[in-house]
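Long-time lurker, first post. I've been practising inverse folding by hand and with some scripts of my own, and I keep getting stuck on stretches where the structure tokens seem ambiguous. Below is the full token string for one chain I'm working on. Before anyone asks, I'm not after the true native sequence, just a reasonable design that respects the backbone. If someone could post their per-position residues I'd love to compare against what I wrote down in my notebook.
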């Protein structure tokens, strides 16, 4: 199951590898209103295509794709992911545990450490992300724990949060969780939330490193403007925190979003040589500030504000 959005450059490679390495899997593609030639790439192919007239976001598109098939096992692939091995071991692990993920490498064959696997984010880890501490000091203990830097990516076993770019689950998991949460819109943290709810519901996620795929990375996100990326990420971060953190931790994150917006705004103005970051981060500050002082606390997150 593949979600596309302006994926003309990569989708054929993805499907060719899928045909070669997993010929028995039914192919479902949900296109989120691509404006390039993505849809033309499917003509005469094996994939069943669901073409949305608007970008419904990743979570909603995944739910559409799963609903369009009755397959017992569902493999989510990003369009810039190329399978390099069979996925039979993922099926076996998903049958036993509920969810499974393989190893992602970059185009040079190097493991994508820090991306392929992560532990569930804590409030401290996200605050470190907001203030750029994990980028400036990647070996700090908080980041090492968050990004599984203390674990070899050749080691199989139970994990918390594999990347949604390469994730398999049993249909029963999706049904029990009532699918992905479509209020994470359009991107970020929907896969983290799904994995968190799956584990909370008694399922387990197995990492199977002998199943490998290469991942180009940043394909669709790179097409978003910096302002959109900052806005979507902060809104989704607070949505996740509202669902899974204590009221105190949630408010701490709201405050961190507000405070970190000022240095991020200045850095954006310098990098872009533009005043646009003032508008972007002013909006983010208003949004997070309203949630910080709201009497509703947790759960008070809406992208319509």
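-- Answer (accepted) --
I ran through it position by position. Result:
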């Amino acid at each position: 199951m593949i979600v596309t959005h302006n994926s003309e450059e990569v989708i054929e490679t993805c499907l060719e590898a899928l045909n070669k390495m997993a010929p028995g899997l039914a192919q479902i593609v949900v296109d989120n209103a691509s404006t390039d030639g993505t849809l033309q790439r499917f003509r005469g192919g094996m994939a069943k295509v669901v073409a949305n007239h608007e970008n419904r976001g990743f979570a909603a598109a995944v739910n559409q794709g799963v609903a369009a098939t009755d397959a017992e096992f569902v493999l989510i692939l990003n369009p810039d992911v190329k399978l390099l091995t069979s996925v039979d071991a993922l099926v076996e692990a998903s049958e036993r545990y509920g969810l499974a993920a393989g190893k992602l490498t970059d185009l040079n064959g190097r493991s994508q450490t820090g991306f392929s696997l992560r532990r569930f984010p804590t409030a401290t880890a996200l605050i470190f992300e907001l203030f750029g501490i994990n980028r400036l000091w990647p070996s700090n203990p908080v980041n090492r724990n968050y990004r599984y830097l203390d674990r070899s990516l050749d080691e199989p076993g139970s994990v918390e949060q594999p990347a949604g770019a390469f994730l398999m689950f049993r249909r029963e998991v999706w049904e029990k969780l009532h699918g992905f949460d479509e209020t994470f819109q359009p991107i970020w943290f929907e896969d983290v939330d799904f994995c968190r709810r799956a584990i909370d519901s008694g399922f387990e996620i197995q990492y199977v490193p002998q199943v490998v795929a290469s991942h180009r990375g940043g394909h669709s996100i790179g097409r978003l403007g910096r302002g959109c990326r900052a806005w979507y990420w902060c809104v989704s971060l607070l949505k996740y925190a509202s669902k899974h953190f204590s009221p105190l931790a949630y408010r701490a994150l709201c405050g961190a979003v507000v405070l970190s917006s000022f240095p991020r705004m200045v850095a954006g103005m310098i990098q872009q040589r533009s005043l646009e970051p003032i508008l972007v981060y002013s909006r983010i500050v208003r949004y997070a500030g309203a949630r910080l002082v709201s009497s509703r606390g947790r759960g008070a997150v809406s992208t319509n504000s």
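A couple of notes from the structure itself: The chain has eleven helices and eleven strands. The chain has three domains: 2-116+153-215, 121-149, 224-293. Happy to go over any region you disagree with.
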